[in-house]
Amino acid sequence: MTTTSFSEREVPDTGASAAADLLPSMLLPGLASPSVGRTARRFFERLRAGLLFAAACGAASLAWPNADYPTRPVRVVIPSPAGSSPDVIARIWANKLGRALGQPVVIDNRPGAATIIGAQMVATAPADGYTFLYTVGSTTSINPAVYPKLPYRFEDFVGVVRTVTVPYVLVVSAASPFGSTAELVSAARKTPGKLNYASHGVGQTTQVVMARFLQAADARMTHVPYKDGGIPDLISGRVAASFEPSTTAIPQIAAGRLRGLAVTGTGRLPVLPNVPTVAEWLPGFEANSWQGLLAPKGTPPAVIDRIAALSQEILGSTEFQARSRELGLMPVHESPAEFQKFMVDDARVWAKVVKDNDIRAD
Fold it and tell me: What is d(CA 318, CA 241) in angstroms, rounded to the nearest whole number?
């Protein structure tokens, strides 16, 4: 048996209204003639109104979630290993969010490939409000500029909530001869390229932050990438310096293994009150990362707004504030629209740093 769909009858794709107007002539061509009776015409007018109403309801269902959302667990993919700072912060947030939603918020750690593995999973996930990405700034601000064959695009995500700002700390060995940023830069300028610095790999934030710093300081050092960041070699003095996220630097400084020379934020960290900002020596310098929640493009705005509103309450809680500051992280309060604009601006800034320093990763 052969069936014929509206598309096979060559109905123009001009929307629900046009399709409803064409319906009488498509079903029974004779009814569209001027001689058709009033009863038939009224029937089709009512049918047309019903079709338009149904189309409007269908469109609304795509934009607005079920009033009972969520009706099942919500998955949050973290492209970082368990125990990392994004994982620690996300679990505090997820536990409280799950209670507020009345459904579990399940953490799914998918580390590897500079956050690319986890990011790709979420970029291709259904935009139904049940899959999110809790990630770090490099996912959208650095990776698109560094990796020419990235399996996702910046545009594949929408910002939900930025949870914390992540400052970086310029560190050297506790036994290093350099006691200040000025001393390190002075030595680097006198012997360009002789001093080296460690990073977590080509194109990683630790390299890009250092590249930005050296460019601003008009100095040159040699990059030595490590898979593990090179902390042991930094402690032993085999490499001269590194920029480490506050979460990594603070315990090493507290243990007396590393010395903090400067932090990249606009103000000193409460947990490192004796470590000045880079800006105190190099006015205007700032180079932070961030952590935040992203959703696949097309996620219903009502879902995003609800998650964002509940998250802001969590970010303001005593527990979240205290734990964040212990790690040297600064909680953020902004709307989804403000977060989205921030991501666009942030990506533009870091893309320029990557281009200026010719940083590329295969």
Answer: 35
